[in-house]
Amino acid sequence: MKLSIHDPKFILFLLGAMLLGGMYGAAVGEEIAWAALVGELFLNALKMMIVPLVGSSMILGVNQMGNSRKLGNMGAVTVTYYLFTTLIAVITGLVLVNIIQPGVGTEVVVQSVRETGAYSFLDVVRGIVPENIIHVMASGDVLPLIFFSLFFGIVLNQLRDRATVVLNFFEGLFEISMKMTQYIIFTAPLGIFGLVAARLGQAGGWAAFQDELARLAMYAITVISGLLIHAVIILPLLYFLFLKKSPLRYFRQMSEAIVTAFSTASSSATLPLTMECAEENAGIRQSSASFVLPLGATVNMDGTALYEAVAAMFIAQLYGIDLSMADQLVIVLTATLAAIGAAGIPEAGLVTMILVLHSVGLPTEGIGAILAIDWFLDRIRTAVNVWGDSVGAAVVDKVTQ
Predict the structure, then answer these.
(1) How many domains does the chain have?
(2) 145 belongs to a structural domain
(3) C-beta of residue 273 within 8 angstroms of C-beta of residue 307
């Protein structure tokens, strides 16, 4: 019997590949060149599909909506939902870090950190409208691509009778892109094996990782606990309240994308697979998936926002700095805004964390205390980000029907 990527058994291959890759990387304990190459090729193949799939899908999605009022309604619901879940994630992280207090009495080695420059929320707004769409496609910036595709789709809808050839072109491009994505997904077990093995090997294997984890155990427990609460309780509860369906079944439908997000540590790279799972496995309308998921991969970073709030408080506790409720409210706001802009700037995690620390006067060199295991926590929060995008797509699809 031929195995399909939509077969539930396929997820077992992905999980098995991730486990074997981790065991191999942990045992070798050094850089594994061939595994890194395999993982990089898989990651590049996913990134390769972002522009044609997102662009064509969003243009067709706008046409399916029929008018700008529906588009405006979907946009308002999407932004409101994403802001709400991001705020909930930040507050969850702050509550846990105040209860557990992982930085109190903890001794860690602070590595040197290079500050990469200033950043403001205005940079995100400024980057929405591209000055050169070819450059945007070459660099893979999703937010300006979304703007251009929406603008293009709206005008194409207005000129439908005179632009049939163009519409047919994008319909064909979308079908081809989806088929190419399916072929790439077939290689996911091998790619995931390479990514996990290479990264754990580069980290020094199990012995080195175990030492790092032991030094930062309470910090890691706090971050992971917050991410689990958000992913296992809050997001499924929202899904059930809006759709009256089993969130566990929906999780299984999106599991390929979530496992890949953990392996790649990139919401944007996982985006083609997230869209494939949402439309083909979960039956979400193309018009909803093509709008909500690309926007979510760019601005909806629940896991990142929670992590940055916990990390900022952890650093404050390490240095014995007492932050007031007003300071923590500032962290809530800046972590939310930083998470929104994280995907669109170089060295996103570092720069946005500096923004949060600056907002309450914390020393930026404190980032060096958490770098040792950040690569591991990054994968968990990316998986939560993608799960949050997926739930958002389902909720928006239901609300805007």
Answers:
(1) 1
(2) yes
(3) no
